[in-house]
TrEMBL record:
Name of the featured protein: TPO protein
The keyword Secreted belongs to this UniProt entry's keyword annotation: yes
Record-linked SUPFAM superfamilies: 4-helical cytokines
Keywords of this entry: Disulfide bond, Hormone, Secreted, Signal
Protein source organism: Corythaixoides concolor (Grey go-away-bird)
Signal peptide: 1-20
Length: 176
């Protein structure tokens, strides 16, 4: 969509390009805090929408909870691939929910969520210089959901959890 393309362009321009953009996001902790705040706001606004329907066709959401101890034992590349899998599933679930929500408030929030999650997906796909291109087709732990609010909850948990810790880990190497 034109607005999604505009957001992506501004996201990439705002953050410069590829590796440099990730470096800025990783090294300026205020940016990830901003995205966490936006995720919380989207979740809150979606919860305030009137008459959000139960999805007649469930969407498949990644289970994004994790053990910090296990997380710390993984390489940054494995973490990146895991987050990419989660984001790809979340972007697909968001698109699936969008197709079922005609109510204006919910549709607007889902559209915003789709743009944000897809921007992170594209950024992480392009950031790694040493890793090869990302291969779709991974199968993260997942669950089916029929509640639209679950999509927002999953996104907030992903940004607040795995993404934030991943950026924190990358900062140790990139922000010297």
């Amino acid at each position: 969509s034109p607005s999604g393309l505009l957001l992506l362009t501004s996201f990439l321009l705002h953050m410069e390009e590829g590796y440099a953009s990730l470096t800025r996001l990783v090294c300026d902790n205020r940016l990830i805090q901003k995205y966490i705040g936006e995720a919380k706001d989207m979740e809150k606004r979606a919860g305030q929408c009137q008459a959000l329907p139960t999805l007649s066709c469930p969407v498949v959401l990644p289970l994004v909870d994790f053990s910090l101890q296990q997380w710390k034992s993984k390489s940054n590349e494995i973490k990146r691939r895991e987050i990419l899998c989660d984001l790809a599933l979340l972007v697909g679930a968001t698109a699936g929910a969008q197709g079922q929500v005609s109510e204006e408030c919910g549709a607007r929030q889902l559209s915003q969520l789709y743009r944000h999650a897809n921007s992170f997906l594209l950024l992480l796909q392009t950031f790694s210089r040493e890793a090869g291109p990302w291969e779709p087709g991974c199968s993260p732990r997942s669950m089916e959901q029929t509640h639209v609010t679950s999509v927002f909850l999953t996104y907030r948990q992903l940004v607040q959890g795995k993404l934030r810790f991943f950026f924190h880990d990358l900062a140790k190497d990139l922000c010297k």
